[in-house]
Amino acid sequence: MDDGIIPTAGLLAHQLGPLRRAVLRASRSAADLPDIPEAQIEVMRSLATTGESAPSDLADTLGLARSTISNLLSQMERAELIERHLVAGDGRRTRVGLTPLAETRLRAFDESAAHILAAALRDLSANDVAAIATALPALDRLQHRIVGG
Hints:
The chain is mostly helical.
């Protein structure tokens, strides 16, 4: 029985990537931000929410391999976006946190993204805006189902 789920899922999958990339590009440009990779933005957003974190916990939270997180954190440390701190009493374990530079860039990116989206929403019909607003809680529930929540 075709209940329309597969075509809807395909259309949603097709739209998510281009929409995310369009917001990212437009936000970077409008805020005159450097070309920070999306994965680094997600690391910064996670650290802004949780505070300092162990790299392994960050990998679990973001659903990334530990080697991927290790590479991202090394790049971000070189770009002065994160700082590593040894865990007291354990010279092998570290925690990472955002630098003031990263906090400033993340705030600029998020503010820019909100303005970009607001401007685009203003150009849509009231019905389109209402449909998007109505869909937001469902999209949040969808995300939680995908990540196993």
